[in-house]
């Protein structure tokens, strides 16, 4: 994709684009990415290592997708993340509780 190799990219907004699959390495070169909006798509899987190179990420918006499970360790390396929106997905109650337990101290967590 045109943005995947842009190392200076800080803000990427792709809401409502009917995205279904995100390559696990889609954002690997976007180390300066701070804001990522992927809401209202058809995404069903988030790879555990999807955001591991995005250390500057402060906002990650994934609500209104088809996500069924997110590994609780997915955002471990995103220490600057203050807003994570995951509501209106298909996450199970147990998975929601795991995410709340791990990231409940985040300024704005919406599961």
Report on this model:
This protein is mainly beta. The protein is built from one helix and five strands. The chain has a five-stranded parallel β-sheet with strand order 1-2-3-4-5, with no helix packed on it. α1 (93-103) links the parallel β4 and β5 (108-110). The longest helix has 11 residues, at 93-103. It is globular and about 35 Å long.
Topology of this structure?
Blueprint: E1 11-13, E2 35-37, E3 59-61, E4 83-85, H1 93-103, E5 108-110
Parallel strand pairs: 1-2, 2-3, 3-4, 4-5
Low-confidence stretches: none
The main β sheet shows up as: 5 strands, parallel
**Order of strands across the biggest sheet?**
1-2-3-4-5
The total of helices stands at 1
- Tell me the number of strands: 5
Task: Estimate the helix proportion, in percent.
Answer: under 10%
Mean pLDDT: 95
Silhouette: globular
Strand content: 5-15%
Give me the strand/helix succession: EEEEHE
Distance between the termini: 29 Å
């Amino acid at each position: 994709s045109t943005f995947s190799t842009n190392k200076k990219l800080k803000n990427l907004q792709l809401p409502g684009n009917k995205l279904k699959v995100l390559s696990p390495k889609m954002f690997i070169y976007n180390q300066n990415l701070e804001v990522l909006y992927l809401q209202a798509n058809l995404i069903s899987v988030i790879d555990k290592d999807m955001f591991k190179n995005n250390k500057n990420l402060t906002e990650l918006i994934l609500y209104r997708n088809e996500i069924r499970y997110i590994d609780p360790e997915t955002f471990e390396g995103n220490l600057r993340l203050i807003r994570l929106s995951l509501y209106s997905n298909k996450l199970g109650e147990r998975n929601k509780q795991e995410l709340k337990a791990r990231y409940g101290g985040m300024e704005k967590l919406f599961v």
